[in-house]
Automatic annotation (TrEMBL):
Taxonomic superkingdom: Bacteria
Predominant location: membrane
Compositional bias segments (type: Low complexity): 268-282
Family, as annotated: Belongs to the methyl-accepting chemotaxis (MCP) protein family.
Compartment(s) of residence: Membrane
Descriptive protein name: Methyl-accepting chemotaxis protein
UniProt keyword Cytoplasm present: no
Species this chain originates from: Rhizobium rhizogenes
Region (Disordered), start-end ranges: 268-290
């Protein structure tokens, strides 16, 4: 069985280990949650910037198409305004990409952002080339459109790939946060259960193995001091300090029993001596009576000093041979009793030191409990700050979602406007065809009028002088018909050119409608991503609430530990009081091993 001192040391080490583990888990949980929260917020910011950059990617295509349409004055588009919009959208595009590059420095997202740079530069260069030629050389600008659309498709694919990779990294961060949350909850619950079990076990073990045995041993010593030697002390079979004290008390009890037997033997010896005196009635009787007197007086003096608590003496004067054994037994009893009380005194010192160590351990445990409470308070403050950050991220995600919804509505309205423009262009094309038909009719009429005028001139020539006036009129009609035919031909050429321009405008309007539909689909995708981010933020908020509950539970356990410390302190005070009583009982005896070694001599006084 381990000693009380070893038990106290082991208990202190276990308490320190549990407290250190709880503090370590709290610090690790705070650091891990802060890191995961920062990474999730960074992923959300990068994804939002990437979505805005994707919108600018589509906006640049709309600017290029608007620059092509601005070559047609009937479209009402100003090339300078288009160029200004292009510059603004290009700057915003670059700003979003650079913002993501700076945010993702040192992370896996940076490689994704760097992969977009090359197609981005090629796309912007193609856009600037088309817009730069749209005002001065529109035909060459239109020829560059296939190359621009190819660059658009390449960048669109790169942006889509980058968006998927960024979203995957964000999902991975959310999954890691969930895994970390589960690990933290499990560790905190395990520590809570372990601390509770250990505290209860330590209190019960201390009460059973230290306090109760000492109280029982104190009662045994009070009974023995009262003269009752019938009951042996408890705990003799123990191998710790309490067992040593019980053995010492048992030796004291056996010495008291032997002393009582010696007194009985002395009384019997006196009776025998008196009988011998009465039987012999001779000088031998007087000698025996003298020897008996010497022996009894020595024993009486020794018993008197023993009754007064003085154990620092020995009976050195020789007794009669028949009483010499009695003297040796008395001296041996006194010596054993003194050694027993010395052992009890040493045990009292050990108990006193152990009780002080228990009090010191309780004080250390109280300080560690206070430190743990402070750590829990810091952990709770950090969790509140993280919860505020997650709520702020959720709010920003909701605002971005509303912005994406507004953009989707605007794109739908733009598609509707483009549809109306397409219908107007179709009507213009139909009117041009109708005008072409009318011009054909006019041309036919001019041709027939020319033929009639020619015939009239021939007939007037045949008529001679009488037909000269009619010939002049016929010539004028013929000239008028030729001018009408020429005007009709010019009108037909203009109508044909206008029809070609209208067809080109219809194609561009169709391309614009397709682009706006793509923008609407992109915005719908953005709305879905924002919904996923909002859901993830809500789950994180729920997880933080659970961790808050776990920290509150640890705070409750800390309060219970404080109550256990108070109980241990009270037990230590009780132990100290009982030790003082035991010391007071032992202090009644005079114990001096030097006096026992060089003992006082009780000589017979005649």
């Amino acid at each position: 069985m381990a000693s009380i001192q070893k038990k106290i040391i082991l208990a202190s080490i276990a308490i320190f280990s549990i407290t250190g583990a709880a503090t370590g888990v709290g610090m690790w949980a705070t650091e891990t949650l802060n890191r995961n929260s920062e990474y999730v917020a960074l992923s959300a910011e990068v994804l939002r910037n990437h979505m805005q950059a994707d919108m600018m990617h589509d906006a640049l295509r709309s600017d290029v198409l608007a620059a092509i349409l601005s070559t047609n004055a009937s479209m009402g588009l100003d090339l300078k305004t288009v160029e200004a919009d292009l510059g603004e959208h290009e700057a915003s595009f670059r700003e979003m990409i650079e913002a993501n590059r700076s945010l993702s420095a040192g992370t896996n997202v940076k490689a994704v952002i760097d992969g977009v740079e090359k197609p981005l530069l090629a796309y912007m260069e193609a856009a600037n080339a088309v817009v730069g030629l749209a005002g001065s050389r529109p035909e060459e600008a239109i020829k560059l459109m296939p190359e621009f659309m190819r660059q658009f498709s390449a960048l669109e694919k790169a942006m889509e790939t980058a968006g998927d990779q960024i979203e995957a990294l964000s999902d991975a961060a959310s999954a890691e946060s969930e895994k970390t949350k589960a690990t933290i909850n499990l560790a905190l619950k395990a520590l809570l259960v372990l601390a509770s079990i250990f505290s209860v076990g330590l209190f019960l073990l201390t009460r059973r193995s230290v306090i109760q045995p000492i109280l029982q041993l104190s009662k045994n010593m009070e009974t023995l001091a009262g003269g009752d030697t019938s009951q042996p002390p408890s705990g003799i079979d123990r191998r710790d300090e309490i067992g040593s004290m019980s053995v010492a008390v048992e030796v004291f009890r056996q010495a008291a029993i032997a002393n009582r037997a010696l007194e009985e033997q002395a009384a019997a010896a006196r009776q025998q001596a008196q009988a011998d005196q009465e039987a012999t009635r001779q000088q031998a009787e007087e000698d025996a009576s003298e020897r008996l007197r010497i022996a009894t007086s020595g024993l009486a003096a020794g018993l008197k000093r023993l009754a007064s608590g003085d154990l620092a003496f020995q009976l050195d004067q020789a007794f009669a041979p028949q009483f010499e054994a009695l003297r040796h037994d008395f001296n041996s009893s006194v010596r054993q009793l003194a050694e027993t009380l010395f052992a009890i005194s040493d045990g009292i010192g050990t108990i006193d030191g152990s009780s002080r160590e228990i009090a010191a351990g309780a004080g250390d445990l109280s300080r560690r409990t206070e430190n743990q409470a402070a750590s829990l308070e810091q952990t709770a403050a950090a969790l509140e700050e993280i919860t505020a950050n997650v709520s702020n991220a959720n709010k920003r995600t909701s605002e971005a979602r509303l912005a994406a919804t507004d953009a989707n509505h605007s794109a739908l309205k733009s598609v509707e406007v483009v549809s109306h423009a397409e219908e107007a262009m179709r009507r213009i094309e139909t009117s041009s065809r109708q005008i072409t038909g009318i011009i054909g009719v006019i041309d036919e009429i001019a041709f027939q009028t020319n033929l009639l005028a020619l015939n009239a001139g021939v007939e007037a020539a045949r008529a001679g002088e009488a037909g000269k006036g009619f010939a002049v009129v016929a010539q004028e009609v013929r000239d008028l018909a030729q001018r009408s035919a020429k005007a009709a031909s010019e009108i037909r050429d203009h109508i044909r050119q206008s029809s070609a321009e209208v067809e080109s405008g219809v194609k561009l309007v169709l391309d614009t409608g397709t682009a706006l539909k793509d923008i609407g689909e992109r915005i719908a995708g953005i709305d879905q991503h924002m919904t996923a981010i909002a859901t993830s933020a809500a789950e994180q908020s729920t997880g933080l609430a659970e961790i808050n509950a776990a920290v509150n539970s640890m705070d409750h356990a800390t309060q219970q530990n404080a109550a256990m410390v108070e109980q241990s302190t009270a037990a230590s005070a009780t132990l100290a009081a009982e030790t003082a009583k035991l010391r007071a009982l032992v202090s009644r005896f005079r114990l001096d091993m030097e006096d026992i070694g060089g003992h006082d001599v009780i000589r017979h006084v005649a």
